[in-house]
Amino acid sequence: MPDLPPLNSLRAFEAAARHLSFTKAAQELHVTPAAVSQQIRQLEAFYGIPLFRRTTRTLILTEAAQMALPDVKEGFDRLMEANRRLRSDRHGNLLTVSSSPSMGERWLLPRLERFRAQYPDIDIRIDTTDRLADFVNDRVDIAIRYGRGNYDGLESDILMQDVAYPVCSPTLLDGDKPLKEPNDLRHHTLLHPEWRQERDAQPSWQMWLRAAGVTGIDVTRGLRFSSDTMLAHAAADGLGVALALSSMVQRELADGKLVRPFGDGGSQIETVFRPYLVYPKRNLALTRVAAFRDWAMKEAATPRL
What's the CA gap between 122 and 287, in Å, rounded? Predict the structure, then answer.
């Protein structure tokens, strides 16, 4: 094997080149800037070429360093992945699933016992977060994400088609101003999921009312919620009528806590963003990941809780 420079020198080079700063590299590596500078000098001496051009205010990569940096970064990524795999082999039956809080609570959790019954030897760790999974540093095996499915460098399988439609408590179907037809919505509070309002392509009350042929309702009014879980609870508690995603209210519809006031044949809107299974292709070689993927795809194809 050809001689290699010290690993610490390569780490210092990669961090300094990425930040274009010895100070920021030192902070990341928990050493002093002088230590980073010393490691860079050792690397330059090893190869016999300069790697940085230093000015009074900036740090500039030489042409040779620019050409080498992508390979060095890829090498460290591979080392991190190898480290993750070796560490995970100590607990080869532990599956780590990353999910947004809403998908984790409203879709995955009600079904999880069936996975456990089918695969009793696989332990599960659920990591709920709205940020995209870091499959290397967070030791995540597979993720459930709501989006368009275009995740660079990752495989993505659509779990289900999603639609949006109004839901409410059964108590709103009767009373002084019963919900009988879409025009009756003008007498009720509209419940909005605030995160969806930030995505212009996603369904909104304005879109739904237009599709239903209803005019004269102020869609800027109402209550807004930052999670689908809170939205569903608010609707079930009779606070108003929610425009909900079908994947997020299956449990309440099945339990009768929520109803579709205009019937199953009422207007509904197709969504651009959908639930996806996301994972590095290499992870399918792991039995636990392949088992979860196959199970989740079958669950999504079966309309049950």
Answer: 10
**Mean pLDDT, residues 28-32:** 92
Query: Is the entire prediction scored with pTM above 0.70?
Result: no
Single-letter amino acid, residue 225: F
Distances (CA, A) of 63 to 24, 38, 50, 102, 264: 22, 21, 10, 47, 64
Q: Which one is predicted more confidently, 77 or 155? A: 155
The pLDDT of residue 197 is above 60: no
Q: How many residues does the chain have?
A: 305
Q: How many CB atoms lie within 10 A of CB 35?
A: 16
- pLDDT for the residue 77: 82
Domains of the chain: 7-89 (1.10.10.10), 94-160+273-301 (3.40.190.10), 163-270 (3.40.190.10)
Count of CB atoms situated within 10 Å of the CB of 237: 11
pLDDT digits (tens, 9 = 90+) for 42-60: 999 999 999 999 887 788 9
Q: What percentage of residues in the chain have a pLDDT greater than 90?
A: 59
Q: Environment class of residue 168 by beta-carbon count within 10 Å: exposed (0-12), middle (13-18) or buried (19+)?
A: buried
Give the pair of three-digit tokens for residue 272.
């651009």
